[in-house]
Amino acid sequence: MKRVDPSLCADHGHDQRDTGASIAAAKPYYCPMCPGIGSEAPGDCPKCGMRLEPASGLRPRALRTIYTCPMHPEIERDRPGDCPICGMALEPKERLTEEDWGDDEAKLLGRRFWAGVFLTIPVVLLALEGMVPGVSFTGFLAPAVSNWVQLVLTTIIVFW
Questions:
Q1: Domain residue limits, the chain
Q2: Which of 72, 90, 100, 138 could crosslink 96 through cysteines, CB 3.0-4.6 Å?
Q3: What pLDDT was estimated at residue 57?
Q4: Rounded to whole angstroms, what are the CA distances from 12 to 32, 70, 81, 83, 160?
Q5: 72 CA to centre of own chain
Q6: How far apart are CA 19 and CA 25, in angstroms?
Q7: Which residues of the chain are under the pLDDT cut of 70?
Q8: Residue 15's closest CA among 44, 45, 35?
Q9: Rounded-to-integer distance, Cα 1 and Cα 21, Å
Q10: What is the pTM of this model?
Q11: Which residues lie across from 92 on neighbouring strands?
């Protein structure tokens, strides 16, 4: 891929990342953020976790998202980036609906949210044990075990 001075491309939307075209012939799905990552099936990138894009070329015009600057609506790009005038992140002008892309990601985020809520409840109860009158787990758990349980549950909440 030929490299171009980024200062020359800032005003007309070129991006220096590999778009995955080199993988298009070999793999039907590629990661737009990680050059060289491809897959035979849709899913997430093993390197960055981003959803793999179809390598069949550009999406149909109806599914393309136009990105614009919130402060300068005259700036429009076909991919996310920064505004060349103020440097703010470009935002989607027209958001895709669940019907356009499916709601797999929404379901996944919903499951993660509720799992986080259910794992947070015991952490809060164990952490507030000595502060709330009438709540005591010392008969069930030794203080050292309680600390380890809180550490494990909190680690799962944070990193999942």
A1: 1-57, 60-96, 104-159
A2: 100
A3: 55
A4: 19, 18, 11, 11, 38
A5: 25
A6: 13
A7: 1-27, 56-64, 94-103
A8: 35
A9: 10
A10: 0.38
A11: 67
